[in-house]
Every structure is written in structure tokens, then in C-alpha cells.
Design a protein that fits this description.
- The structure holds 2 protein chains of 2 kinds.
- Chain A is an all-beta fold.
- Chain A contains no helices and 11 strands.
- Chain A has strands at about 5, 10-15, 20-25, 30-40, 45-50, 55-60, 65-75, 75-80, 90-100, 105, 110-115.
- In chain B, the strands form 2 sheets. In chain B, strands 2, 4, 5, 9, 10 and 11 form a 6-stranded mixed sheet that branches. A 5-stranded antiparallel sheet of chain B has the order 1-3-8-7-6, with no helix packed on it.
- Chain B is globular, with a radius of gyration of 14 Å.
- The mean pLDDT of chain B is about 95.
- The chains are: A mainly beta, B mainly beta.
- Chains A and B meet through strand 9 and strand 10 of A and strand 5 and strand 9 of B.
């Protein structure tokens, strides 16, 4: 399967600041990546589909102006949480899609805490 | 709204036993089915994919698919304490070109020594 990295693995920021999370596909060219969020003891929630070279597609209820996604290359997608608030504290995880098998490979996740 | 249903558990089995995890899904058009394992505090890890009716074996894991019954299961033979985790069933959505996955809420498995 694909090897996916995320940076940073954890981050603490103050309310009102912005945080950028990087997702890299290390051995695989990913046209499509996905961003998920997971609150403690809850299931994964898909936030958006990130397509290389085009605008991201956001799920219903996800604010596109708050969660900015850029997929500028086949190996890198970034998620920027703008004007973060404590309720944005969560575990953010990206995946890369293997289009031949429809398998999604998860990155290790980024734990965001907003104080 | 497409749904994937799993029993939340916990499913408790003794070491060495077979653990049986079940999942049902609502989208009859789904083509691909996946089992992920998620340890506490970690991200999910893909352990099995299955696309055709029947059984697929990989080491101690066997995935079973029955599209007519819209049912997919995962058997773990010779369960080990290290298998203790939450197991997520995922199914792809036909109306998204089969790209998006719908995840179940997961079944927590506890394997006691």
C-alpha cells in the first residue's frame, strides 16, 4: 500500500490563529486525497475531497472558508484551519486514494489542540 | 443516506479464539469493501479489501462478502492481545464514482490473555 505522512503530528495553537497541516504521499502519485476529522471515541467524519490541480469538494456542513485545502501536486495536499477555535480541536487525518483498487491509505494523523 | 452498520461491542474473546466481526451496508451498488484496524489514539490501517462474493484469506484474517445479503464480515483466527483494537468496516459509494468511503462506527475487539 501507499506510504502517507502528515506534518505536524500534533500542534497546539491559540484561539484565532491559523494552522497548516501537510499530507504527503511518499511513494505514490495521488490525484485524489481525502481529509477526515475524528473526535474522541467517535467515528471518522469526511471533511472534503482534495483533487490535484482543482478545487476541493467539501462535505455538507464543512465550512470551506474555514478549512482551506490545497492540492498543488500529486504528492502534497494541505489543510489550513483558519481562525481556529477550541471546538476545532480534533484528530485530522488524510488519506490517499489508489484509483486502481479504490483503497484508501491513511496518514498517521495530526492532533490539533486549540487553547 | 448510505449507511454501514456495525455492532459497537466490545467483543471480548480469549487469546487463541476466533473473533468474528460483522457489518451490513445499505448501498446495493457498492463494489468495494474494506476492513480497517484502528488502535486507540492512532489512525486507521487497511487490513483487508474484498470485491467479490465469497471468502478472501490473508494470514490470520478472512474477509467474507455476500452482496445479495449486503453483508461483509471479518474473521480473525488465533486472536492475540495485540489484535485488541477497533475494527472499521468501509464500503465505497456508487454515486461518487466509487471513490468515497462510508465508514461504520467500528467494533471494539478485546482479546484477553
Amino acid at each position: 500500500g501507499a506510504v502517507v505522512s502528515q506534518h505536524p503530528s500534533w500542534v497546539i495553537c491559540k484561539s484565532g490563529t491559523s494552522v497548516k497541516i501537510e499530507c504527503r504521499s511518499l511513494d505514490f502519485q495521488a490525484t485524489t486525497m481525502f481529509w477526515y476529522r475524528q473526535f474522541p471515541k467517535q467515528s471518522l467524519m469526511l471533511m472534503a475531497t482534495s483533487n490535484e490541480g482543482s478545487k476541493a469538494t467539501y462535505e455538507q456542513g464543512v465550512e470551506k472558508d474555514k478549512f482551506l485545502i490545497n492540492h498543488a501536486s500529486l504528492t502534497l495536499s494541505t489543510l489550513t484551519v483558519t481562525s481556529a477555535h477550541p471546538e476545532d480541536s480534533s484528530f485530522y487525518i488524510c488519506t490517499v486514494l489508489a484509483e486502481s483498487s479504490y483503497e484508501q491509505y491513511f496518514g498517521p494523523g495530526t492532533r490539533l489542540t486549540v487553547t | 443516506q448510505k449507511e454501514v452498520e456495525q455492532n459497537s461491542g466490545p467483543l471480548s474473546v480469549p487469546e487463541g479464539a476466533i473473533a468474528s466481526l460483522n457489518c451490513t451496508y445499505s448501498d446495493r451498488g457498492s463494489q468495494s469493501f474494506f476492513w480497517y484496524r484502528q488502535y486507540s489514539g492512532k489512525s486507521p490501517e487497511l487490513i483487508m479489501s474484498i470485491y467479490s462474493n465469497g471468502d478472501k484469506e490473508d494470514g490470520r484474517f478472512t474477509a467474507q462478502l455476500n452482496k445479495a445479503s449486503q453483508y461483509v464480515s471479518l474473521l480473525i483466527r488465533d486472536s492475540q492481545p495485540s489484535d485488541s483494537a477497533t475494527y472499521l468496516c468501509a464500503v465505497n459509494e456508487e454515486n461518487t464514482g466509487f471513490q468515497k468511503l462510508v465508514f461504520g462506527t467500528g467494533t471494539r475487539l478485546l482479546v484477553s490473555p
